[in-house]
Specification:
Elements lengths: L8 E10 L9 E4 L4 E3 L4 H15 L12 E4 L11 E9 L1 H4 L2 H8 L4 E6 L3 H10 L4 E7 L14 E4 L15 E4 L4 H17 L5 E4 L3 H13 L4 H4 L2 E2 L12 H22 L1
Parallel strand pairs: 6-7, 6-9, 7-8, 9-10, 10-11
Antiparallel strand pairs: 1-2, 1-5, 2-3, 4-5
Helix pairs in contact: 4-8
Length: about 270
Amino acid sequence: MDSLVGSTACLVRVESTEGSAPREAGAWMAVFADHIVGTIGGGHLELQAITEARRRLGGAPGAAQGQPPMRFALGPALGQCCGGVVHLGFERLTAADLAPAAGLRVRLAPPLHPLALFGGGHVGHALARVLAPLPFALTWIDSRDGIFPNPTPEGVVCEHSEPVQLAVPHLAPGSRVLVMSFSHAEDLDVVAACLRRQREQGDLPFIGLIGSKTKWATFSNRLHGRGFAQDELAQVTCPIGIPGIEGKEPDVIAVAVAAQLLQTLKEETARG
């Protein structure tokens, strides 16, 4: 049974923050009489929020709906030295609100960023598992039949494309792209298709290619021969993954690449 299914609950959401805080605006937890789903950051802040939520579930005086968010200063009084302020909203949910639970999850889900993963090899499988719970809408693309796992990770859309590069013009605007097919020839065709799209639309914020510096040197020469200028080639990241993480195991690579993608989201937010 879905953990959000129950009789009644109190939804606690981070409405806004000031300064340093354990979670961002939009983070939530659902407080039931006997269990909790989600988190707003743990610590004494969460303990106090749970107490307040259950007070409201019990129909305590002053627990009416529609009240403004409560202010929590993260200082000595809460035993947390973050130094910031968190404003929490409390909303009582009835059984009707919680059924079906999928509707509530959609309502509470953070915005998802489109991401295209080309390649269903070992690293592709590891990445699909790592990326599935992160804030990405993942489309997984391969030219081969029978390459995707069954079942696929929740929320992942699988797509067969032959030849594989024909999928590039149909990617969602703003897609980040990871290229790691079973052959260098396919990789080259996908990267070239991405660069053509960049030339025409400029709407792919990240193009990442798996491989070494030597592979990229070879690809750069071949792409230059296809008419791409140096400033266009500079839009491709190769090797991929945040630096400093050693190991070539698929799961290690997947974690390093996922971390890099999350960094691009932070950079995009900073640019406004």
